[in-house]
Fold this protein.
Amino acid sequence: MKGMVSENFHLFSTPMILMNAKKILMMLMLVLTTIPTIYVSYCEHPNKLTSAWLINPVSVDGDITDSKEWIDANNLDLILGTNYGRSPPFLESKIWAKNDLTYLYLLLRIEYPISYYDLDDQAFIYYLVHNNTSGYIATDKSIIGQLGSTQDLFNFTGATWQNDVPGGENNVEGMGIYDGLFYWFEIKKPLNSGDMRDWFFELGETYGYADSPIDRSDHLCVGLFDDSTGYNIQNFMQIVIAESTLLDHIPVGGELLSVSKEHIFLQLLKTIMVYLITLACIILTIKKML
C-alpha cells in the first residue's frame, strides 16, 4: 500500500506535473500550427484565378490575334474600384491567365466609358510580401501602356516605387488598346526573371492571399491607372500557377479542355490523410503521458 501511494505521489509530484505540462503544451502548439494551414487551404479567396497551362501561343500586341489565342486560358470576373475595389468608380473587368515553364501570360479586359478615354491610361499588376512590421520582404510591379510602353518596378516603400533599371532589367512585355467599349491589355512576364527585383512564382503554387489592405498576407493586385483623375482603380486577386498537366487534357471538338478533377481529389485526399495521421500521433502521445 505504501509503495502504491508512493508511486501515485511520484506521478503527481511537482516535477512530473511540470514535465507533462511541457509535453502537452508542445502538442497544443503543434496542433495550433496546423490550424492556419487548414484555414488557408479551405477558405478560398473571393477572387481566385487558377492559371491554365499554355497550349496556344500568345502574340503580345494588346489584341486577340485569333479566336484560339486565349481559349486555353482560365478567366475571372473582377470588379475594380478605388479603395481596393470597395469605392466608386467601379469598373467591370475580366482577366485571363495561363503560363508555361517560363512565363505568365495575362489578358485584362476593362469596361470603360468612351467619354473618359485617355491614351495615357495604363494597366498594372503588383505583388507585395510583408515582413510583419512596417516594411516588405519583396515587392514587384508591372505597368503596361497602350502603345507598348512598359515599366518594371520594385522596392516599394509604402508610397513610391523604384525602377528595376539600372541595376536590373525591364522584364515586362505588354501592350493595350481601346475598342470603344473595353480596354484590352496583354501582359507577359517571367515567373522568375532571376534579377532579384521581380516576383518569384513557382509551378503549382498559390500567390495573393490578402483580400484587404490591412491583411498582412501577401498582396496581389491588378487594375487600371486612370491618368486624368490619378486614381488607381484596382482589386485584390489570387492566382494559382499551373503545373505541366498535358496528360490531363483531352481534345474536345478540336479544342483542349481540362479534365484534372481526379488529380485535385487525390491531392485533397493526401492532405486529409496527413492531418489525420498527425492528430492520431498527438492523441497517442497524450495517452502515454496520462
Summary: The chain has two domains: 2-43+260-289, 48-252.
